[in-house]
Amino acid sequence: MTQPSKIAIVTGGGTGIGRAVSLKLAREGCAVAVVYSQSAKQADETVGLIQAQGRDAFGIRADVSDRTAVSAMIDSVVARWGKLNYLVNNAAITRQLPFDELDLVTDEIWDELLSVNLKGTFNCCQAAAPILRQQRGSAIVNVGSIAGETGYGSSLPYAVSKAAVHGMTKSLARALAPEVRVNCIAPGAVDTRWWSGYEEKMRKLSGALPLQRISTPEDIAESIYMLLISPSITGQILRAENGQTL
User: Fold this and answer.
1) What confidence tier does 146 reach under pLDDT thresholds 50, 70, 90?
2) Is 198 known to be catalytic?
């Protein structure tokens, strides 16, 4: 394996946007920890694709909503590589629910989505912060959603959870400055397995996009990498939505 210049963790790294980010970081010279919760097979495939590029990678199973599991995940990365430069908080879940049927939103759904999407993101930032602070130019990118900006998406609890991630990004950018930059990307519709069977809803949510296209995971990966390496950008929410909110 080629000696890595940087070490990166990508949560939800086995599929979709997470896989695209993991591969992009590997192409840019990083060793990558591919974190997954349930997608073991896909995570192994992603690790194999990275290793085929001559870069080091390994998969780690961790429930990001579990602080103990997250701490162990960070320890595993440090034990293998001795440092950490980048953290991409991509792990998230959703429920497809009609927006106007509030009675469908249960305590269980609130707890589940906030536990992973919001608390899970914080858990990873909290555990990684002391290690990231040791490296010059270290950075975090949280994957939010345009739903967190517009208030409309796959479900009301999902949109609210992502709005909270956007707000937390700004707070973390202040808390971790000047050593660690923290930014957030807010993708619009992205062609991933999340929308399998809901393509019409995806297009409706997207509206009449000025760029007349739906983003690919690779599109979002390029923007995430830009945020990771941009030394003057912190506390920002980058909308990557093909002009949806113009």
Assistant:
1) very high
2) no
Let me know: does 123 contact 129? Beta carbons within 8 Å: no
Structural tokens at position 26: 């590997």
The Cα–Cα gap between 201 and 23 comes to 29
Contact 33, 89 (CB under 8 A): no
How many Cβ atoms are within 10 Å of 195's Cβ, its own excluded?
18
* Tokens standing for residue 223: 């923007």
pLDDT digits (tens, 9 = 90+) for 31-71: 999 999 998 999 999 999 999 999 999 999 999 999 999 99
Domains and CATH numbers, the chain: 6-240 (3.40.50.720)
In the numeric block, the tokens 């946007």 are attached to 17
Residue 179, classed as helix, strand or coil, is coil
What per-residue confidence (pLDDT) applies to 57? 98
Q: Which of 152, 158, 198, 225 is catalytic?
A: 158
Q: Yes or no: say if 62 and 12 are a contact pair by the CB < 8 Å rule.
A: no
| Residue 214 structure tokens | 């739906």
Instruction: Select from 39, 64, 62, 187 the least CA-distant residue to 114.
Output: 64
Sign of torsion, CA 100 103 107 112?
negative
Please give the Cα distance from 239 to 189 (Å, whole number). Answer: 11
DSSP sequence for 47-97: HHHHHHTT--EEEEE--TT-HHHHHHHHHHHHHHHS---EEEE--------
CB atoms under 10 Å from CB of 242, counted, come to: 21
The token pair that represents 205 in the structure block: 């949510």
